[in-house]
Every structure is written in structure tokens, then in C-alpha cells.
Amino acid sequence: MTAPIAAADVTRHKWWGWGQDDVAFSVTNRPAFIDLARNEIGIDLANAPAPVAPVLTDHEVPATRLPGAVREQLAQALGEDAIRDDDEHRVLHSFGRSLPDLFRVRTGAFERLVDAVVYPGSEEDVAAVLRIVLEHDLVLIPYGGGTCISGSVTPDAEEQRPILTMNLGRLSRILEIDDTSGLARVQAGMYGPDMEAELNAKGWTVGHFPDSFTFSTVGGWAATRSSGMQSDKYGDIEDIARGLRLVHPDGVAVTKAIPGRDSGPSVHEMILGSEGRLGVITEVTVQVHRSAPVRQVIGYMYPDWEHGIRGMHAIARSTDVTPTFTRLSDGPETKFSLALSSKTPTTTKAKVSAKVQDGLFAYLRSQGWDTSEEMCLSYVCFEGSKASVEQQKSIVKRIVKANGGVTLGASVGKVYDQKKFDTPYLRDFLLGHQVFGDVCDTGATWSSINEVHTKVYEAFEEVQRAQDLPGFMFCHMSHSYHAGACLYFTFAFPYSSEEQALEQYYRAKEAVQQTFVDLGSTVSHHHAVGVEHRPWITEDIGEVGVRMVEGLFADNDPGRNLNPGKIVAS
Ligand SMILES: Cc1cc2nc3c(=O)[nH]c(=O)nc-3n(C[C@H](O)[C@H](O)[C@H](O)COP(=O)(O)OP(=O)(O)OC[C@H]3O[C@@H](n4cnc5c(N)ncnc54)[C@H](O)[C@@H]3O)c2cc1C
Questions:
Q1: ipTM value of the model?
Q2: 465 located within any domain
């Protein structure tokens, strides 16, 4: 087998934020977005100086606590190049991409950093590191792309033992494709885009596209029970991951790559979503599908949320269509999306399309629509043969019309499809202006979805009133299932001071999360538990459920060496 890539070649985020160093969000030529920020949260982006990137040397980085002899043992096992304990490595790997993590990393809250980062190049290396961890009573945190937004890779501030983070990025290959069964064995540290590119070249796709796709890994998806935007067709990671290999304190646990299983409680399911608490996933066998010859995203507009949800539900229930994804933005999110995408038109093409949009909105207003606050943008993606896509499009067009909506067409859908992975850069931009922008998601049944939507807005408005802070919230529905769907809320507000910032953030987040569980919805649909959602785990899975999970972790990791404190405190 070819040698693994060098540790130095593993893709990494900028140490303080999302993605690549040379990519950033900008408000240049975005007058509608500037207006929205001013009107909704009182921020003057037009006259504010451009945010300045944080500088690591402005902050004090505490020395590593890893004993020299242990470092030497690790270097002997993996090679010197595979052990990194420079400041930037330790800082980058001590934070995920949750809002509190981004705030802390930018402000130099470095009281407890991981002590070193190791880069195993094989499953044997992973096992060797785990032996050293157990021998010296260290803590081990597995790390894929570090995109988690629930504090799952962040070390416990009170941890006194030396902490190692294990970056899986060198395990980045597709090992085998079983063309007959449609299964691919993929190493856990492989990034989404690398995997899809290699599979696409052979006519395959996994079809798993979380919004964090560009910087997250196959092992991270499995360890967090990830869900991609195309889950309507391809399923969530628990449907996609058919087999796993996990390096565990007692050896390697293997779950066979089979279509179904009937061997008592599912060990496979225990490993999915375990967030590094049972060991290190080294390999995931994923289902692969032949890439569809035709793929089209079509845009629609509904007069309001209730009509849109009825349309989405009817599409989910239809026996005649199997969309790849369905998505409905509510009124505020539609306003946000239009403001974000609308730039001052400079080319003839852009001027024509702006005129077409103005004409459409004027027509909708003449039909009694509220085009500034209420109307809801929707996207549906179709894949298949040309004939099948055309047939499904015409069925969905009829469903949308029957529920009061109109079809916008393919060009608006194309823009959405091209820009869908760009928004994470916006959070860093807002933080540079002392504005928090964050997300909370939940799974709700069709019968409760409108109530959850309404009550979350009420809870957020109330908490912001109590904090005497402005706030802007918007929401979309995605990940449609037979019984319900995911509601994905985004909220933004300027914090009043660095000292009060996180307290203000947690009050807003708690109001939203508590509303989810009070209404019987899940604490999260696809953002894992980590530490950020841990306060609601008992309300989510019940006291008995928590005891079962605690027992699982205590039995498999009695010394609490494996990412302790994540999911449950013990
Ligand atoms: C902007 C943004 C958008 C997002 N959108 C989505 C989305 O659409 N859908 C979605 O599901 N999630 C989303 N997320 C959350 C996050 O991307 C997912 O949880 C993702 O699966 C994490 O993958 P990762 O490789 O980055 O894992 P990491 O963040 O590195 O790790 C996450 C957890 O998994 C553990 N882990 C990682 N690799 C392994 C391994 N090989 N073995 C054992 N444990 C391991 C870690 O210890 C940690 O507990 C988003 C996050 C951001 C910041």
C-alpha cells in the first residue's frame, strides 16, 4: 500500500476560524446585506473598519504538560514528524468550531490547551498511541476536521493529566471499492471533498454533504452521527456507514460491512455518535451510489411558512417523487438569503435578472403576498435520468401550486447549489464586528413542527428583551423524513462587552434549546452532544438512557482516558 501523507500535508483550518487563510466573507457590493444588519441588529457595517485577523503572538500560550519521556516514547512509536507541540498546533486542536470555541480562540482563552498533537499513519500507530495513553494515564481526544460545534474536541478546563489530540488526517485513503455491493472502505481521516472527488472519478458518490463538508472527515461524521443536506435520498450517516473499525482499549472492534444486522444490541450503533469515548475509528465502509446523469435544483416560493410546510409535507408523503433534498426557508431567512445574494448589478445579465426578480415580486404583491416579511423560498433537488427528473419536477410543481406556491425555476436553484458551502465564513466576519451568529437545530414531528417554529421565536425574542439586546433569528426546514423534519434556527446579535459576551450567548442559546426539549423535540438533529448540548441530555434520552450510556463508557474506558466528559459528564 502507498505510504500515508506526511503530517505537514494534512489540511488544516486557520487557527482562529473557519477554513482557508486566504478566504473571508466581505460586504463589498452587498448594500442589501448592510441594510439588513443595520435594521435588524443595529450594526453599521458600511462605516465599520474591516475586521482584523487575530494574531497568535498577541496571546500567551502555556507550556505543554506532556512529560519529555512520554513525548520520546511517542516519537519512537510514530516518528518525530508525527508529534507536534508548537503553539499553533496546540491552539488549533484545542478548539472546535462552536461559537464559544471561536470566541475563546480569538480572545486567547488558552488556560487549558491540549499538550501535543499526534498524527498516526496507520491503524497500528493508533493502537500504539492508545497503549501509551493507557500506560501513562493520559487523555486522548480523536480529531477529524475539528468542525464540531458542540465542544467535542475541546479539552476539559479542569483536566490535570496530559492531553493528546490525535489528528487522523494521515489516514486519508479509499482502500477498496466493492463495485458489486456498492460499498467503499474509507480511512477515517479522509476529508469529504477528497473522498467524493476520487469516487466521482469512478462514477460513484456517497451523497453525504453536511454544510461543513469541505473541512470534515468520514470518521468525524461517524463519531457524531452526522446528517448531510441530501439525507432525504441518501440517508444520514447511520444509514450510509455500513461497517466500522474502532481501535479500542481491548483491541480492534470490527462491525461487518453488511446490509443489515440482527446480533443483539447493535455494537455498530454504539460506536456511531460515540464522539471518541469508546476509541478511535480508523475505517468506515460507506454505501456508494452511481452518480446520477442529471441533477437539478429548482427554486420555489410560498406566500408564508404554513403554506410552505404543507407543501414540504405533501412532497415527503408523495409516493411519486423521491427528491434528493427539500428545503424551506421561513420569511426572515428568505429576507436574509435575498439580502446576502443580492449584489449591485453591474453586468447586463445581472441587470436583466434583477429586473425579472422585481417584476416577479411586483406580481406576487398584486396577488396579496407580503414579499418583504412573509414569503418563503424553497429548494428541491432532483436526480436521475432526464425523463425521471422531468417527471418528478412536474409532480412537485403541481404539489407546490396546490399549496399556494409558485415555481421560480432552475437558475435560482443553481445559485444556491454553488454557494451552499460559503456561509461558515460569515460567522468569523461577524465575530470581527463583535456580533455573535450561531445555529441550533432540532428534529420535530410534522404535527409539532409549526408549534416549535413559533415557540422558539417567542423564546428568543423574550430572552433578548430581558437582556436588553437586539436580535435577529431565522429558520429553515430541511432533512425531511416520513414522520417529521429538521428545523434549523440561526440567530445573531451584537454582544455588549467581551466580559459579558459568553453569558449573553448562553442565555440566548439556552432559551432555544430548552424550548426544543420542552416541546418533545430533540436537543439537536445533527450537531452532536459534546459539552454544549450535555445539559439537556437527560431531557433528551431520559434518566435510564443516561445511565445506560454512562455504563457503556465506564465499562469500556474505566480510567476516563478517552475524550472524557463528552455526551455525559461522568
Ligand atoms: C459551519 C458548520 C456547519 C455544519 N454543518 C453540519 C451539517 O450539515 N451536518 C452535520 O452533521 N454536522 C454539521 N456540522 C457539525 C460538524 O461538522 C459535524 O459534527 C462533523 O461530523 C464533524 O466532523 P469532523 O471530522 O470535523 O470531526 P471533529 O470535529 O474533529 O470531531 C467531532 C467528534 O468526533 C470525534 N472523532 C472525530 N474523528 C474521530 C475518529 N476517527 N474516531 C473517533 N472519534 C472521532 C472527536 O473526538 C469529536 O468528539 C457543522 C459544523 C459547522 C462548523
A1: 0.99
A2: no
